[in-house]
């Protein structure tokens, strides 16, 4: 299992930092409930790379 930082997530997805925060914020109208949740380790938000890749495959399959 590989963890990646927030910056790596939005770079991999080709989106901006604000978009990523909107997708993960339940109060945002752009919130995506199925988006992978981050893990907090020593104050840093990390994502599981496999979950991000799976999310990307789901988006690609819907087009």
From TrEMBL:
One of the Pfam families matching this protein, by short name: Phage_AlpA
UniProt name for this protein: AlpA family transcriptional regulator
Matching InterPro entries: AlpA
Domain of life per record: Bacteria
């Amino acid at each position: 299992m590989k963890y990646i930082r927030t910056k790596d997530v939005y770079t991999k997805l080709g989106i901006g930092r604000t978009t990523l925060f909107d997708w993960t914020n339940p109060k945002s109208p752009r919130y995506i409930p199925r988006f992978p949740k981050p893990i907090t380790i020593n104050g840093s938000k990390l994502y599981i790379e496999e979950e991000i890749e799976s999310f990307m495959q789901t988006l690609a399959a819907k087009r």
